[in-house]
Amino acid sequence: MADSYELRCTECGRKFENAPLSICDECFSPLEVFCDLDEARKDFTREKIAAGPTSMWRYKALLPVSREFEPVTPAGWTPLLKAPRLGKRIGANNLYIKNDAVCLPTLSFKDRVVAIALASAKEFGFDTVGCSSTGNLANAVAAQAARMGFKTFILVPADLEPAKILNTQVYGANLVRIDGNYDHVNRLCSQIADRYRWGFVNVNLRPYYAEGSKTVGYEIAEQLGWRLPDNVVVPMAGGSLIRKIRKAFQELVTLGLVEDKPVKFFGAQATGCSPISTAVKAGRTEIEPQRPQTIARSLAIGNPADGRYAAKMIQETGGWAEDVSDVELVSAIQELAETEGVFTETAGGVTTAVTARLYAHGRIRPDELTVSCITGNGLKTTDALQGAYTLEQPVRPRLADFEAYVEEKKLQHELVLEGSYVS
Ligand SMILES: *Cc1c(COP(=O)(O)O)cnc(C)c1O
Ligand SMILES: [Zn+2]
Description:
The strands form three sheets. The chain has a six-stranded mixed sheet, with helices on both faces. Strands 8-7-6-9 form a four-stranded parallel sheet, with helices on both faces. It is globular and about 75 Å long. It has three domains: 80-107 and 213-385, Rossmann fold; 110-210, Rossmann fold (3-Layer(aba) Sandwich); 392-423. 50% of the residues are buried. Helix 11 (275-281) runs parallel beside helix 12 and helix 13 crosses helix 14 (346-360). It is an alpha/beta fold. The chain has helices at 37-41, 46-50, 84-90, 110-123, 136-148, 162-169, 182-195, 206-211, 214-223, 240-254, 275-281, 307-316, 326-340, 346-360, 399-409, 414-417; strands at residues 5-9, 15-16, 31-35, 80-82, 95-99, 128-132, 151-157, 174-178, 199-200, 231-235, 264-270, 320-324, 370-374. Helix content is 38%, strand content 14%. The longest helix is centred in the middle third of the chain and has 15 residues, at 240-254. It binds pyridoxal-5'-phosphate and zinc ion. Residues 9, 11-12, 14, 24, 26-27, 29 line the site of zinc ion (ZN).
């Protein structure tokens, strides 16, 4: 049976057979996968989707995997949370959080892209897979490859957060730390992929991998009751996720599953690595590579593969991009946790701080339906909060000591003393 998806060059439009390829051999532009929407249309209704699995695989008809593929790693289908308390703080009346901090199996949105990339790796007959990673991708590849029985080689910058290193090693992956930043690691991986028959999820399998990000967009639309938001705020590293959310919305419109409407896309970066937001703010689409210097390591790609396309797309939709300092992103991590009970990693701090600024600057109006994409979990970057909280001396396990402690610290305790917890 013919595949219901194909590879095309984003610039010259040349078509390619499905294969582990990411660059056009005529014009050297990136290749992208396009799924056959007419094929999908036949069998893809709101009812059928609702009856599907509670994972990203409910959208299988729009993903580049064969009909026969049986998923073994259910990823995605994360909560879309209303965020009234954060909204109140930042002047937003209609704010939602797409919470991929709890994406399974490894607590970041990278589980979605890896699910597709490893399905492709299986179809292309690889037995070894790998990636270059700023952390979350390493975790996702290591875990899902273990479950699918692949051997793994994972290359990361040597200075990665310890939790992200441990979360890769525990799955038995071969972890290679490289003395350099992500852009060095990525270049090395391209060279390795040319020499070894390995499936690198974000190198030779990149066109397939990237399609996995569309599922964030499908889920947002379905969870909003099959409608599109006014605005989406998305963190950017390579600039792929933000583009694919838009592609997802456009596909749903083409399929008649949602009504068309203009959606503005807003990109978020850390100032210490902000090649895309810098271009957007200057009204340019060309990207000037930067040397990353930020604690938001999962976004620290100085030379983003999809940067130019992301910048262009943001401008086309009437959106904007912003970047925030490391100090701001840490406060935003705390603010999101305190108001909505969502503990995100540094990238989510970036997104939250940028969201707040977009409201403050009037780029997003209070009543517009806005979705802020939280993409990773705070337990992986606890070092970002080092020193933010102090630990008191332990109190002896006696009521009198506890009361003395409450008195000394002037803790708020009116409700308890009035017995309002006891009915
Ligand atoms: C990789 C990553 C992103 C950005 O993804 P791109 O598609 O490369 O722009 C955002 N957030 C987190 C937590 C990530 O790990
Ligand atoms: Zn081409």
